[in-house]
Amino acid sequence: MGEIFTAIGLIFFIEGLLIAIFPSRIKSMLELIKNTPENKLRTLGILFLILGFSIIWYIKK
Question: What's the whole-model pTM score?
Answer without folding.
Answer: 0.69
